[in-house]
Design brief:
22% strand, globular, binds the ligand CSC[C@H]1O[C@@H](n2cnc3c(O)ncnc32)[C@H](O)[C@@H]1O, binds zinc ion, nine-stranded mixed beta sheet, TIM Barrel, four-stranded parallel beta sheet
């Protein structure tokens, strides 16, 4: 097949790894960035994008979400996690099927692409249907089937089989855009046997693990009374932790647990909006960063956020650390850009492929339009302009794996209106089933 080339001209580049002090041209060859230099000829190039007045960044990486939960946005607000999950979300999820999850995932993919996210890491049900939405939308994803056994042996076997089937069917699918992880839900819903089995199978199959840990004080109390140890102490005691484990939330951590996270090189997904909305608490992110722990960013599901805008999430992360430490110098806009890009790639073990703008890496790129009221004056501090002033609606162009998914704010792979209509219908049906 002939090569497909896209040339981005006159780009002001904001990258977490490299300081580009002048405008550059960037050439995409198929799925990869093939050249970044001062003046690349547009001869024999399939498509030219003029990036004048725009900022070029790596696509953002959302390391913890439940994409199909877009269907439950706004349906159970202003509650703490326990009541939100047990009395509201789980009863609604009992009526889900593959088609609903597919529609919810398409709706989520529209929102992600429009707000500049090119990779998301998901844990949910009917993941083959979520994979179908990933395939069609052109976005990149790490998918985990969310396993809950509550100590029931039969359920445990069935849950593991479902996650392994997802791995066999979907790992490396969609031109390599899909990876599959294990997704044991949490230390309070997954039994010790399930966690030990997951660890063993992850080692045998070279799979990574995605789990919720230490989200609320209730979790700390429940795990401590059942196991005599705090969640990270317990997970360490059963040999579950490692550099391949991505833990969402990590709000309630004592110093010993921070040492455990560091010793095991565990990766963190920080979810500030969800933690604030469910009143779970404030994760000690600046302390984790001081300890050189890899902190990435996630939105959690759209039902506890209530949107999937990572620029907003990064601003919230930064402001929350400043106000909770009473130190305006912590979590700077430069650090926020790194958390939303290269740290996300590291958290998913994909740092050789995505997370920065480098020759040889995948062309997962976004352009942010500066010709908007909230972006003027054009700051010489690009990261400040993006993190503190912008939001997802300033994203103009989104490219993933060398494919343009949105150009001039218009989606190319998905029919927005058709998805909105189908999502509205699905939500009405689900509400009627309650
Ligand atoms: C078993 S699939 C994932 C499962 O997790 C639920 N969920 C969504 N947000 C949270 C959260 O913040 N903490 C714990 N669990 C959460 C989701 O509704 C699914 O049931
Ligand atoms: Zn979650």
């Amino acid at each position: 097949m002939a090569d497909n080339t896209i040339l981005i001209k006159n780009a002001v580049i904001l990258d977490p790894n490299t300081d580009y002090d002048e405008k550059k041209d960037l050439l995409i060859n198929n799925d990869l960035i093939s050249e970044i230099s001062d003046n690349i000829s547009d001869e024999n190039v399939d498509k030219v994008i003029d990036a004048t007045g725009k900022i070029l960044l790596p696509g953002f990486i959302n390391t913890h979400t439940h994409l199909s939960m877009t269907l439950f946005r706004g349906l159970a607000d202003d509650l703490a996690l326990d009541e939100w999950l047990n009395d509201n979300i789980w009863p609604m999820e009992a009526n889900l099927n593959g088609n609903y999850c597919y529609i919810g995932a398409l709706l989520g993919a529209v929102e992600l692409i429009k707000s500049g996210t090119t990779t998301f890491s998901d844990m949910y049900f009917y993941m083959e249907d979520v994979a179908k939405a990933v395939e069609e939308s052109g976005i990149r994803a790490v998918l985990s089937y969310g396993m809950i056994d509550f100590g029931d042996e039969e359920k445990r076997k069935a849950e593991i089989e479902k996650n392994m089937a997802l791995f066999k069917n979907c790992h490396d699918a969609a031109d390599g855009r899909i990876k599959v992880f294990f997704g044991p839900h949490s230390p309070y819903t997954a039994s010790e046997e399930l966690l030990r089995e997951v660890r063993k199978l992850a080692d045998e199959n070279d799979m990574k693990i995605h789990i919720h840990v230490s989200e609320t004080q209730k979790e700390i109390n429940d795990v401590s009374s059942e196991k005599g140890l705090r969640p990270f102490e317990y997970l360490d005691s059963i040999g579950f932790l490692g550099p391949d484990v991505l833990c969402a939330h990590c709000v309630w951590l004592n110093d010993n647990e921070i040492d455990i996270i560091k010793k095991n090189d565990v990766k963190i997904s920080h979810n500030p909006c969800s933690n604030m909305k469910l009143a779970s608490g404030i994760a000690p992110v600046s302390k984790l960063l001081e300890n050189d722990i890899c902190v990435s960013i996630g939105t959690d599901g759209a039902s506890s956020n209530n949107n999937l805008d990572l620029i907003e999430e990064l601003k919230t992360a930064s402001l929350l650390q400043k106000v909770s430490t009473l130190d305006p110098k912590v979590l700077t806009s430069d650090e926020a850009i790194a958390i939303g890009t290269i740290n996300g790639a590291k958290a998913l073990g994909l740092e050789d492929e995505i997370g920065s703008i480098e020759v040889g890496k995948k062309a997962d790129l976004i352009l942010i339009d500066t010709n908007n009221a909230n972006m003027i004056p054009d700051s010489s501090n690009l990261s400040s302009n993006i993190i503190y002033s912008a939001n997802g609606s300033n994203v103009d162009t989104t490219i993933c794996n060398g494919q343009i998914l949105m150009e001039n704010k218009k989606l190319t792979t998905l029919d927005e209106q058709e998805i909105y209509d189908k999502a509205r219908k699905a939500i009405e049906e689900l509400k009627a089933l309650l």
